[in-house]
Specification:
heterodimer; A: about 80 residues; alpha+beta; 4-stranded antiparallel β-sheet; 2 helices; B: 14 helices
């Protein structure tokens, strides 16, 4: 059984776990940005529905058509979208 | 003695027949026929004229709706005519039925619908002002929040690629013709406009206005070299 004293800690733990992925995947500005990039590069996507941040300027975008792209800035300073 | 009531009834029947015929004809959307029917009605006694007057207002809107769209089509503004036409066409119909002298009055309002359609010219005046400040445009594109960082970087890469193609073209390293470069330039401008127009309409307008001026710089080797 969970003791009442542990309940807040458990609540915060669960909220932190839930909030982490949500911010990465649900930022509308980032999703729009990634959608624009993929379309500018002429790749089929539709709309980016979720994204996972791997590093700075490095994301994996999941498109509405199910395709996944790794969008990142390479050493030459060019934005690249690699199909996963 | 009996002749008077009979002629009276006959006249009433004739008048009723004329008024009914008048109703039916406008519904069938014929303008020439109503005039023909009213003409015989006017020849008989004065009383038949009275029933015609109340009947006329009903078909007037229909005739107006039919007549105005034909005028509006060449004017290329479908929205404005439907609101105005209903009140104006009524005078012409009355004029056609009763006297031909009162036609000048309806003719005067007729030019009025043409005047509201005139406003389109102002947009033509806007593009005539070629505003081009390349550096300011660059700064605006960098600072705009309408597009994200990745998008800006991608656009910059594509602009650099296009400039590289121009450079190769002027150095005769590439066998592309200017039409191909123009097509690539147009595509790039359209991409930028489509990205910016929702979030930053002012910038989109500036870019659209500078489009030809930028092309003039790119298409002229001397100006292009000063750019680089």
């Amino acid at each position: 059984m969970i003791k009442p004293a542990h309940a807040p800690a458990l609540f915060f733990l669960l909220s932190a776990l839930a909030a982490g992925p949500a911010t990465a995947a649900g930022d509308p500005a980032l999703l729009k940005d990634l959608t624009s990039v993929i379309l500018l590069l002429g790749l089929p996507c539709g709309q980016v529905v979720s994204a996972t941040r791997l590093a700075d300027n490095d994301h994996v975008a999941t498109c509405s058509n199910g395709t996944r792209y790794r969008v990142f800035v390479n050493q030459d300073g060019r934005v690249v979208a690699e199909k996963q | 003695m009996r002749i008077l009531p009979i002629t009276g009834i006959l006249l009433v029947v004739l008048a009723a027949g004329c008024s009914n015929g008048k109703k039916a004809v406008p519904e069938s959307t014929a303008q020439a026929e109503p005039q023909a029917t009213t003409a015989p009605a006017a020849q008989p006694p004065a009383p038949p004229v009275e029933p015609i007057a109340p009947v006329a207002p009903e078909p007037q809107p229909q005739a107006a709706v039919i007549a105005e769209p034909t005028r509006a089509e060449p004017g290329s503004q479908p929205e404005t005519p439907p609101t105005e036409p209903t009140p104006k066409p009524s005078p012409p119909k009355v004029a056609a039925e009763k006297p031909a002298v009162s036609e000048p009055a309806p003719v005067a309002p007729a030019p009025a619908p043409a005047k509201p359609e005139a406003p389109p010219p102002p947009p033509a005046a806007k593009p005539s002002t070629p505003t081009l400040d390349v550096n300011a445009l660059k700064e605006k594109l960098k600072e705009t929040k309408a597009i994200g960082v990745f998008t800006k970087l991608t656009l910059k890469n594509q602009v650099d690629d296009l400039l590289q193609q121009f450079r190769a073209y002027y150095q005769a390293k590439q066998k592309r013709d200017i039409a191909t470069l123009r097509q690539a330039y147009d595509m790039l401008v359209l991409k930028v406009l489509s990205l910016v127009q929702d979030g930053d309409p002012t910038l989109a307008r500036t870019i659209a206005a500078s489009r030809e001026a930028i092309w003039a710089m790119l298409a002229d080797p001397v100006k292009f070299n000063t750019l680089m």
